[in-house]
Write a structure and sequence with these properties.
Shape: elongated
Number of helices: 4
Order of helices and strands: HHHH
Strand content: under 5%
Radius of gyration: 14 Å
Number of domains: 1
Helix content: over 70%
CATH topology: Ferritin
Length: 123
């Protein structure tokens, strides 16, 4: 189960990058534009790091499906729902004993939290 959920996790991060980039190009808010640019630049690096760490740790390639956005609302709503999915599935993504991989998940959640702060409070 862990391998499949880890693949879903990475896929969701790739999707978050795509959604953020699209909204970044459409927004008329400079603050939102810059916030989303920072998010999509950082999230792809974190996703790549997680996937490589996972594959190095378990010596198996992740199956990363192509995700579609099932969350509705603003970009902040979408990121909030994705962050909640991460928290709800954290133990299924990788066992808690894999602390270095959980540290990477923590970095992902921190990026979501900082981005949500900027989107909601720095308009």
């Amino acid at each position: 189960m862990t391998k499949a959920v880890s693949g879903q996790f990475v896929s969701m991060l790739f999707l978050a990058r795509d959604i953020a980039h699209i909204v970044h190009l459409k927004t008329r808010s400079f603050a939102e534009h810059k916030t989303l640019e920072g998010f999509y630049d950082a999230i792809i690096l974190l996703a790549d790091d997680y996937a490589q760490q996972y594959q190095g740790r378990f010596n198996e390639a992740l199956d990363i499906p192509l995700s579609t956005n099932e969350n509705k609302g603003t970009i902040a709503d979408v990121l909030e729902k994705q962050m909640q999915w991460i928290e709800d599935n954290r133990q299924s993504i990788v066992p808690r004993t894999e602390t270095t991989l959980h540290n990477k998940i923590d970095e992902v959640v921190a990026l979501y939290q900082n981005t949500l702060y900027q989107l909601r409070f720095l308009k």
